[in-house]
UniProtKB/TrEMBL annotation:
Residue intervals of the Nucleotidyl transferase domain: 3-269
CDD domains: cupin_PMI_typeII_C (cd02213)
Lineage: superkingdom: Bacteria
Name of this chain's protein: Cupin domain-containing protein
Coiled-coil regions listed in the entry: none
Lineage, broadest ranks: Bacteria, Bacillati, Bacillota, Bacilli, Bacillales
Length: 455
């Protein structure tokens, strides 16, 4: 069976730590067995390895999340890149077409779709393996996995099974779905053996490829990617699951949580303070997450979340944190912090001038052994000051060493790349017009290719 992890959402509900490139699954606020901080995606990928299914897994994601995924779970993890965000049905369709036309996966192969950010224990992923057996035994078009509810939640969707005359079967047939019912309705559903819908389903590849043909959509990856922007923005649940009649369901009785808001995420944080800060004892059930280089002090304030990052500062009661997505709609700014394959950067200052001119100051950390692509900026200049560390730099095919104290000027049109020999800390000042990222052209990416140009 092949496994597709969906990682394409934008970061709104865990603002200000999450943004358009660093969604909730990339926040390092959980601790692993060694006591080290890890993100949700790092935790899930580790669990896939424990279940010995990582070699059959792919991650479907957008272009803006490619580098942070590679920095957190490795550059060798196979990614299926969406040209733009179009919701889960287009994303899954693109992934299925990739398996079929690029990977030459058999139409008889089973494919499981998984969210990238559930909070579960290792047995959850062992249980997912059973979906293939359920598909083949039931001869269903889709096989879902639902979680046995522990309380009548109003926040989750429910899968309602058909009454089964044969209790010996390892699966149930699906009757219908109920989305976020009232508490009283949820109690009724639980009495009918309904399960929480955890967003996991499986199908034979032939099922989805046949569906795409019926819809007149391409089944060659490059062509579907080219037409991707024309596809409707619609979820897989609405477009496929709720229109399919022959569905089987596998029940899971174990730990499962959706850590989608601050109040649920903080329930699984092993420490009340991450980053620099002080809290008094009277600040019970309060959590502080601080990514800034200044201390934050919380005095006698219980039941709140305080979160600070270069993107903003949040102070909210825990019960109010689900409102964040709607409240911050009016905030329009590019991400002020990003993780890349080579390291990370933080925007320190941005000055907007006349005639679309701007000056952006960033602090960069390039990790030892990592490097930027060989690139050229068409419409802006850069000045770099090396704060610490040692490295080497190529400027227009000339290789030179760099170290703490060096100041390097990079006029627009200059080809350049930096490689860190030790961790490199730099201040970068960009001056110019237009969108800096869009005006940057990558010439080549591997250091071997880059050095070859200097010979």
């Amino acid at each position: 069976m092949k496994y597709i992890l969906l990682s394409g959402g934008s970061g709104k509900r865990l603002w200000p730590l999450s943004n358009d490139t660093r969604s909730k699954q990339f926040l390092k606020v959980l601790r692993n067995d060694e006591g080290q901080l890890e993100s949700m995606v790092e935790r899930v990928w580790r669990q896939l390895k424990n279940a010995d299914i990582d070699q059959s897994a792919y991650v479907a994601t957008g272009k803006v999340q490619r580098e942070i995924l590679q920095s957190q779970i490795g550059e060798q993890v196979p990614l299926i890149i969406e040209p733009e965000r179009r919701d889960t049905f287009p994303a899954i369709a693109l992934a299925a077409v990739y398996l079929y036309s690029v990977e030459s996966v058999s139409l008889e192969e089973c494919v499981a779709i998984l969210p990238v950010d559930p909070y579960v224990e290792d047995p959850f992923f062992e249980h997912i393996k059973k979906l293939e057996h359920v598909l083949r035994e039931s001869k269903a078009d889709l096989a879902l996995m639902g979680v046995k509810p522990t309380f009548p939640s109003e926040k989750y969707g429910y899968i309602v099974p058909e009454p089964s005359p044969d209790s010996s079967e390892s699966f149930m047939r699906v009757a219908n779905f109920q989305e976020k019912p009232t508490q009283s309705k949820a109690e009724e559903l639980i009495a009918q053996s309904a399960l929480w819908n955890c967003g996991i389903f499986a199908f034979k590849l032939d099922f989805l490829i046949t569906l795409l043909i019926k819809k007149g959509l391409p089944i060659q990856y490059e062509e579907l990617a080219r037409q991707y922007g024309k596809m409707d923005k619609i979820s897989f649940d609405y477009e496929v699951v709720e229109k399919t009649k022959n569905i089987a369901m596998l029940s899971y009785d174990g730990v499962w949580k959706d850590l989608g808001t601050w109040n649920t995420l903080t329930e699984e944080m092993s420490t009340p303070i991450i980053g620099t800060g002080i809290m008094t004892d009277a600040s019970q059930n309060t959590h502080l997450v601080n990514e800034l280089n200044i201390p934050i002090t919380v005095l006698d304030v219980p039941d709140v979340v305080v979160a600070a990052s270069p993107d903003g500062i949040l102070v909210a009661s825990k019960e109010s944190t689900p409102k964040i997505k709607d409240i911050i709609k009016s905030i329009e700014q590019p991400p002020m912090y990003e993780e890349r394959v080579w390291g990370k950067y933080r925007v320190l200052d941005c000055v907007l001038g006349e005639n679309d001119h701007k000056a952006v100051t960033r602090r960069l950390c390039i990790l030892a052994g990592k490097h930027h692509s060989y690139q050229v900026h068409r419409m802006h200049d850069e000045v770099l000051t090396v704060l610490s560390g040692m490295g080497e730099m190529i400027l227009d095919e000339r290789l030179q060493p760099i170290q703490a104290g060096d100041v390097i000027r990079i006029p627009a049109g200059t080809r350049h790349s930096i490689r860190a020999l030790t961790d490199l800390e730099l201040i970068e000042i960009q001056n110019g017009t237009g969108a800096f990222e869009e005006n940057t052209v990558e010439l080549c990416t591997t250091w071997t290719e880059i050095v070859r140009l200097c010979i």
